[in-house]
Amino acid sequence: MAPDTPDTPARVLAFDIFGTVVDWHGSIVREMRMLYPHIDADAFALAWRAGYQPAMQRVRSGELGWTLIDDLHRLVLDALLPTFGLAHLDEAQRRHLNKVWHRLEAWPDSVPGLTRLKTRFTICSLSNGNLGLLADMAKRAGLPWDCVLSAEVFRAYKPDPAVYLGAARVFDVPPAQVMLVAAHQDDLAAARACGLRTAYVERPLEFGRGVARDVAPNLQNTYHATDLLHLADQLGC
Q1: Which domain holds residue 124?
Q2: S-S: 199 plus which of 35, 54, 95, 181, CB 3.0-4.6 Å?
Q3: Are strands 22-23 and 105-106 parallel, antiparallel or unpaired?
Q4: What is the tens place of the pLDDT at every residue in 130-143?
């Protein structure tokens, strides 16, 4: 895919959220260490996240009807708690812990980077997270979205084309005028297949310091940035 040209500029930047804009691993580890210091917080965070894709696959396959990410997170959490000696948690404690996904902290570059990018582009979330989760997260972390878009709007989870093409329809622009910004090559590949532009952002610490992550660029992406401030530099913001 060719870089932006004057004839076909990107107008909308749509952002993946978990891992790209916010630090889910570090945020969960910090909260677990505060609430339950006797457990392995790093292992807990990784195990909870590991249940994310299998849970969504149950929806994609039709085993479950449309189910919000909040509810999928809770299904994974309830199955996980006995493994970590937390089966005794009551409903209020489980509900509070499940809401940690609403309280994730942004990477240090995210807010200043998004603020700069917003001066030139319409910026929105494009996440599998549900609307309530994304709105709470944005409010708490100060994420300056022009619009909060979620898979919930389209009742389909990425990488379903309905999500990527739906974002273009929301803003009444052709797919080529939407750029997906993400730290995950599979997400970007699915967006490119739908005609969107793509920008890859390195997040080497997404899974913590104990998990090595290959952040080598894929030359099919329109842009490759080390963080959102670097992307803003590349896009002239």
Answers
A1: 12-23+104-234
A2: 181
A3: antiparallel
A4: 999 999 999 999 99
**Which helix (H) or strand (E) element contains residue 24?**
helix 24-35
Q: Verify that 222 and 121 share a domain, yes or no.
A: yes
Q: Is residue 3 part of a domain?
A: no
Q: Tell whether 55 and 108 lie within a shared domain.
A: no
What does the alpha-carbon distance between residue 131 and residue 142 come to, in Å, rounded to a whole number?
A: 16
pLDDT digits (tens, 9 = 90+) for 152-187: 999 999 999 999 999 999 999 999 999 999 999 999
Q: What average pLDDT score do residues 101-115 get? A: 98
CATH of the domain at 111: 3.40.50.1000
| Cβ-Cβ contacts under 8 Å for 155 (sequence gap 6 or more) | 66, 162
Residue 6 domain flag: no
Of 119, 124, 120, 157, which is closest to residue 138 (Cα–Cα)?
Answer: 124
Total H helices, total E strands in the chain: 11, 8
